[in-house]
Specification:
The protein is of the alpha+beta class. The protein contains 6 helices and 20 strands. Strands 2-10-13-12-11-14 form a 6-stranded antiparallel barrel. Strands 3-9-8-5 form a 4-stranded antiparallel sheet, with no helix packed on it. A 3-stranded antiparallel sheet has the order 4-6-7. A hairpin with a 2-residue loop joins strand 16 and strand 17. It is extended, with a radius of gyration of 33 Å. The two termini are about 50 Å apart. The mean pLDDT is about 85.
């Protein structure tokens, strides 16, 4: 029995020795790499902040005793004396008139389409070119997140397709469609607004109100203190105000502001009057160009500063912003962005190792910018020893050496 136990112990020991030898050989012969493709990237030096948005805006109260319907869509411009809304004695009258306006719009559309096709000798080829242009316009508008242009391009594309169908002989009876729409309009024509709400200001209409339109004095915006900004942000986050009873609002000045509180050491490289980019974190990364009005040159010893930035871009989306998490981009750098673990020093040179057909090549590179997790390295297409686009850069590996071949 003792001999059996001794033999088993010997066998186990031999197996462990062979396992160790196999592991060491495997470690030497088989090198695990992790690589990342070298691509050009843009990174930003940035300041993160919670910002208050301040506009010159005035609410339009609704008529409490009647059904009130806006005459405008979000983002529409209106002049002094223009009709902002209509009032009706009942919701049924308002609904009937709404159908009247929708039918009128459709009628104008088809009448315009008919006028374009009557007596027109356009070729299928020319219409095809128009369709291609309309598609490209629609794609660009969607890519730029410009909903207004996207709707316009979509409408033009629909027109072009209908005209093409008629040219190639497809049966589209526009006359019957127009006659039917005219009959529908007659059935809705008895419903008319009781009165109109007019405006004594010019501006951009927005149906969105939150009750904070007069929280900050617009005329004193450039003199806001840190305490005033923090107090306003607290009120907004608590949601203390109410927007009930408002039809909408008019933004009466294109100039509006981001105001926020940041650490003074974050603005050391900025100046008042300088233009920077602001990215809206919660709005699909929309980026606006703004001008720093004040706060970029704080007094010595001030730990925080009230940073005030102005923009003149106005649309329906911007008219609804109130409190936003933003990213203030103070500088941009372009290069090859890689994990910090990819950077190595060979002699007196910094660079990375690239895996080229199982051979390791050292690529020289300067560090343009670095963060806790990554480095941005220089890219020079004329450099013989520098990083090349689409190189497979080794971000994790061991025993790396220029010219060494691994299998």
């Amino acid at each position: 029995m003792k001999m059996k136990k001794d033999s088993l112990a010997i066998i186990i020991a031999v197996v462990l020795v062979f396992a160790y030898i196999f592991y060491e050989c495997y470690s030497v012969m088989h090198i695990d790499f992790e690589t990342e493709t070298a691509l050009l990237s843009t990174v930003y030096e940035k300041i993160d902040a919670s910002a208050l948005i301040v506009r010159d805006e005035h609410v339009i109260p609704a008529n409490e005793n009647k059904v009130t319907v806006p005459c405008l869509s979000d983002g529409d411009k209106i002049n002094v004396g223009g009709n902002v809304a209509m009032t009706f004695s009942s919701s049924k009258s308002a609904e009937s008139y709404s159908k009247y306006l929708e039918t009128e719009k459709a009628l104008k559309y088809y009448e315009n389409l008919e006028s374009q096709t009557v007596g027109q000798a356009a070729s299928v080829e020319s219409i095809n070119y128009e369709i291609d242009d309309d598609i490209n316009s629609f794609v660009r508008s969607v890519s730029d997140k410009n909903s207004e242009n996207a709707v316009l391009a979509s409408s033009k594309l629909n027109d072009s397709i209908l005209r093409r169908q008629m040219i190639i002989g497809e049966n589209i009876d526009l006359l019957s469609i127009i006659q039917d729409l005219r009959k529908q309009m007659q059935s809705y024509s008895s419903s008319k607004p009781d009165s109109f709400i007019k405006t004594d200001e010019s501006g951009v209409f927005s149906s969105y109100t939150d009750g904070f339109e007069q929280l900050v004095d617009y005329s004193k915006i450039e003199d806001m203190s840190i305490d005033e900004i923090n107090s306003a942000l607290k009120k907004i986050k608590k949601g203390e105000e109410s927007s009930s009873g408002n039809l909408g609002k008019l933004v009466t000045s294109y100039a509006w502001y981001f105001v926020c509180v940041v650490d003074s050491n974050q603005v050391l490289n900025l100046e008042n009057g300088q233009k920077v980019q602001v990215a809206l974190k919660d709005n699909d990364g929309d980026v606006l160009t703004v001008q720093i009005v004040d706060g970029a040159e704080p007094e010595v010893g001030e730990k925080q500063t009230a940073l005030i930035m102005k923009s003149s871009t106005m649309n329906s989306r911007i008219a609804s912003l109130r409190c936003e998490d933003i990213e203030i981009r103070t500088a941009s750098h372009e290069g090859v962005k890689l994990p910090a673990s990819a950077l190595h020093v060979e002699g007196d040179k910094k660079g990375v190792y690239a895996l080229i057909s199982s051979q390791v090549k050292f690529r020289e590179a300067k560090v343009i910018y670095s963060d806790n997790d990554y480095v941005l390295l220089s890219y020079d297409p004329d450099s013989k020893n520098g990083i090349r686009l689409y190189d497979q850069i080794i971000t994790q590996g061991k025993e790396l050496e220029d010219g060494k071949v691994y299998t």
